[in-house]
Amino acid sequence: MSHIVTIQAEVRDPAAVAAACRRLGLPAPVRGAVELYSGEAAGLLIELPGWRYPAVVDAEAGRILYDNYGGAWGEQAQLDRLLQMYAVEKARIEARKRGHAVVEHALADGSIRLTIQVGGAS
Known about the structure:
- The chain is α+β, with helices and mostly antiparallel strands.
- It has a domain of 84 residues.
- It contains 2 helices and 6 strands; from the N terminus they run αββββαββ.
- A 4-stranded antiparallel sheet has the order 1-2-3-4, with no helix packed on it. Strands 5-6 form a two-stranded antiparallel sheet.
- Helix 1 packs across helix 2.
- The mean pLDDT is 90.
């Protein structure tokens, strides 16, 4: 039996954030504080390609703080890719914790299909 699942991710798992950064070839996130245009933010700092300011993961609140000035200071697509990879990596981590196998398929539209097989680790 298969199911289609849509995930709205809260970004709370630092290990999944780090895995997403590795997959995207980004520098490892570092804990710190940074002055964004609109004020200071603290958490895991992520340097996205072409962005003026880092994205800041506030894992406790489950959110990402950023200032890309409507795309002028960084492409929204970069953040969207990070969120997509975070959701994939978090789903993989949780499935594997439960002993399930995970198979990943990249689709032509840029989305990713994960197939989780109950009971078979991979």
